[in-house]
User: Fold this.
Amino acid sequence: MSSILNADLHCHSVVSDGTLTPEQLAARASANGVELWSLTDHDEIGGQHRAAAAARAHGMKYLTGTEISITFAGHTVHIVGLGFDPDDARMKQGLADTRGGRGLRAREMSDGLAQVGIKDAYEGALKFVGNPELISRTHFARFLVESGVCKDTNEVFRKYLVEGKPGFVPHRWATLGNALKWITEAGGVAVIAHPARYGFTPNEEFALFSEFKAHGGRGVEVVTGSHSAAEAVRYADTAREFGLAASRGSDFHSPDESHTDLGQLPYLPGELTPVWDLLADRIQ
Ligand code: AMP
Ligand code: MN
Ligand code: MN
Ligand code: MN
Assistant:
């Protein structure tokens, strides 16, 4: 298929930290002209069968998806998996293990917020959670906006939820090697999500891309809701340098919070290999 395709291979439902159901996302993607879609919930594939069925009902092509949280060189990095078998036992167990630490982390986040006078944040965040195994910083952010502490979720992250702030709790996620093993052994392709977001030094970034390649990683998000136009150009160069295919996705979470809507982003630059060309036999 051509790189001129309205593919949106990154978004979130209520199964992780989005606010729409898989069915609502499919309807919205279809209305926005998406031709090839993937739901990529954080550390979860519980919405995959619903998403695939909804895509089919709207006449969209579909790839299974997830976005796995990993720890690399002391930083959290996100790896998108596409086109794997959604019933693969090892993938399911790996993701369940990755989700496992979120409950305790959330209670510690709540303790940190209590120390600066924000009470009962755990209980407050829980009201926004669609999947009890998947409480995330996003749910705390929604609670702090609802309770009037901040005007929007961006402000909550900046003031409370990033490293050095009272609600931040360091966490050890999956390893790069394990995440890539789960994805590739289940028949999928691994993609580095929104690389501009990590704030890596050039050396750290080189290490991430090199080790990702060495573990069988094959793609990188070039056009994403998290990248400026200049960052897309920069990571198009990185894709060429490392021989990686390019992916495209909005990272849509919510009509109220996301500035990039499903499918509404520039096409991939023509000279790159689109990641869907590696997945022709996995498209449903
Ligand atoms: P967690 O997996 O619990 O660490 O939460 C990570 C999620 O928080 C990301 O997937 C985003 O949805 C959200 N997030 C991270 N940084 C920001 C930010 N600056 N503003 C809004 N949402 C953010
Ligand atoms: Mn998220
Ligand atoms: Mn992400
Ligand atoms: Mn995401």
